Amino acid sequence: MDILKKRLHEKIEESRRQFPNKSLSAEETEKIHQRRKHERERKKKKKKGMKLKASQETQEDETANVEQNVKEAVEDTHEVPLVFNKVEVHDEPLNKIIKKKEKKERVKGNITPMTGKNYKQLLSRLEARKSKLEELRAKDQEKAKEFESKIKWTNVLYKAEGLKIKDDEGMLKTALKRKEKQREQRKKRWDKRLQQTTEKMQQRQDKRKRNIKKKKMAKIEKKKNRARKKGRVMPEDLAKSNIK
């Protein structure tokens, strides 16, 4: 602190020598002192930041060198030969391709099992299968028998896996009727619910309109009562008293 004060006094004396007519007050000297102090602190911070940055850069370089050395050591110890394979590029996503492949593997004898709850589709497939059998019977009885036995064996294999085969036309028709009836019932319930909600909405709207009208009439009646108190005569009053 003594050194700083000494330097400050030297600067003051120098400024006095440069400007002999101007005398510095205590406040001005204090301002100069504070300014120089801030300048010194700023320089120190800048120097510290530069040192910190340099140390970080050196640490990063050291870590990079270590990683490179480790990588080179691993490459030297484990020499892996390069293998060139063919890569198939598909437009479709990989999941779809895998699913299709699995589905093909599951399908036995190139016959899709009659399963599911889409009874309309199952009936159309059953009719297509029957028409195909009839065509084969008309052309070649042996091929028709082979196709029929193939269908039976594939159905047996699917049943062994736990699948429920739905190839009975009568049962499919009854199931389809039942499903359509349920759909109609659901539609009726939905329409009824929709009608009820619309009616409730309309009732609320009507109630709101009535309340608004009631409030307006109450305001008008209030104004009329005030006017009557002031001595005014309303047309309704004249009509009640039969005065023309």
From TrEMBL:
<dbReference type="GO" id="GO:0003723">
    <property type="term" value="F:RNA binding"/>
</dbReference>
<comment type="similarity">
    <text>Belongs to the SURF6 family.</text>
</comment>
<feature type="compositionally biased region" description="Basic residues">
    <location>
        <begin position="206"/>
        <end position="232"/>
    </location>
</feature>
<feature type="compositionally biased region" description="Basic and acidic residues">
    <location>
        <begin position="233"/>
        <end position="244"/>
    </location>
</feature>
<feature type="coiled-coil region">
    <location>
        <begin position="116"/>
        <end position="150"/>
    </location>
</feature>
<dbReference type="GO" id="GO:0042273">
    <property type="term" value="P:ribosomal large subunit biogenesis"/>
</dbReference>
<dbReference type="InterPro" id="IPR029190">
    <property type="entry name" value="Rrp14/SURF6_C"/>
</dbReference>
<dbReference type="GO" id="GO:0042274">
    <property type="term" value="P:ribosomal small subunit biogenesis"/>
</dbReference>
<keyword id="KW-0539">Nucleus</keyword>
<dbReference type="GO" id="GO:0005730">
    <property type="term" value="C:nucleolus"/>
</dbReference>
<dbReference type="Pfam" id="PF04935">
    <property type="entry name" value="SURF6"/>
</dbReference>
<feature type="region of interest" description="Disordered">
    <location>
        <begin position="176"/>
        <end position="244"/>
    </location>
</feature>
<feature type="domain" description="Ribosomal RNA-processing protein 14/surfeit locus protein 6 C-terminal">
    <location>
        <begin position="26"/>
        <end position="224"/>
    </location>
</feature>
<dbReference type="GO" id="GO:0003677">
    <property type="term" value="F:DNA binding"/>
</dbReference>
<keyword id="KW-0175">Coiled coil</keyword>
<dbReference type="InterPro" id="IPR007019">
    <property type="entry name" value="SURF6"/>
</dbReference>
<feature type="compositionally biased region" description="Basic residues">
    <location>
        <begin position="33"/>
        <end position="51"/>
    </location>
</feature>
<protein>
    <recommendedName>
        <fullName>Ribosomal RNA-processing protein 14/surfeit locus protein 6 C-terminal domain-containing protein</fullName>
    </recommendedName>
</protein>
<feature type="region of interest" description="Disordered">
    <location>
        <begin position="1"/>
        <end position="67"/>
    </location>
</feature>
<feature type="compositionally biased region" description="Basic residues">
    <location>
        <begin position="176"/>
        <end position="191"/>
    </location>
</feature>
